[in-house]
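Summary of Year 1 activities. Much of the first year was spent building the evaluation harness for sequence design. The harness presents a backbone, in tokenized form, and records the residue chosen at every position. We chose the following record to illustrate the format because it has been used consistently in internal testing since the harness was completed.
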């Protein structure tokens, strides 16, 4: 394991270059370029907030940052999971020629998604500073922890999906259905009080996605520190995915080359 981690570190310039290359190719020949990572979620947020605020009779200025925070985190998770499932397939030329640890290829996907998340967070912070300046405080420091926590969760999850995806090519369509189901039972767009009012407390209290969202929403939207329960659920989730990734990787890493 130590040698494996050392191999990942030794290849750091390689997977950082791949992540940056993915971002450059994504916005190549685009007029707005990297700013689309801010414009796209903001545009979707305005549309959804306008409609849902009318349906649920809520204040759009308060509801919009709730939706925007949900969109950017959800898009990061979707990009990490579905992109991770394809990471070995997309890097088959590198895998066949280089003997780097295979975990660097899901890491490449997650890092690119994390960079986009950071850029997409700029409109969210600007909106809150302008509309809800009373929430600004020391608790905002805790929001910065969301990025390393997301990395600790998404990287092993993406790696686990990569080993399965290279063997079973139907994984991505299946993940689409699973993620859609998770979206409906998670407070991504809908507020937590709606779940509790409907007696769906378990979909909130035992949902890792809710606790992950709370690490960002609690300090930014509520001016509060995230709870120990929020961090505990995120830590447990990261540990579970790490164990699964190590277990499957130790069994399947040498076979990946035969599945490509």
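For this record, the design step produced the sequence shown next.
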């Amino acid at each position: 394991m130590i040698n494996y981690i050392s191999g990942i570190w030794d290849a750091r310039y390689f997977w950082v270059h791949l992540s940056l290359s993915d971002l450059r190719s994504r916005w190549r020949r685009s007029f707005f370029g990297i700013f689309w990572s801010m414009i796209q979620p903001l545009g979707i947020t305005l549309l959804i907030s306008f409609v849902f605020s009318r349906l649920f009779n809520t204040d759009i200025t308060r509801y919009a940052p709730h939706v925007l925070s949900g969109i950017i985190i959800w898009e990061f998770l979707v990009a990490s999971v579905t992109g991770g499932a394809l990471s070995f397939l997309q890097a088959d030329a590198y895998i066949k020629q280089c003997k780097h640890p295979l975990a660097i290829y899901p890491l490449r996907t997650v890092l690119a998604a994390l960079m986009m998340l950071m850029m997409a967070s700029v409109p969210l912070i600007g909106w809150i500073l302008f509309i809800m300046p009373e929430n600004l405080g020391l608790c905002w420091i805790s929001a910065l922890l969301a990025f390393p926590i997301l990395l600790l969760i998404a990287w092993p999850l993406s790696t686990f999906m990569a080993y399965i995806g290279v063997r079973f090519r139907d994984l991505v369509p299946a993940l689409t259905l699973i993620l859609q189901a998770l979206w409906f039972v998670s407070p991504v767009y809908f507020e937590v009080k709606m779940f509790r009012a409907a007696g769906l407390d378990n979909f909130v209290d035992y949902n890792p996605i809710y606790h992950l969202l709370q690490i960002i929403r609690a300090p930014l939207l509520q001016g509060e520190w995230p709870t120990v329960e929020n961090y505990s659920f995120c830590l447990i989730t990261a540990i579970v995915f790490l164990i699964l990734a190590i277990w499957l990787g130790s069994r399947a890493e040498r076979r990946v080359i035969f599945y490509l």
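The chain has one domain: 2-16+33-259. Quantitative recovery figures across the full test set are reported in Table 2.
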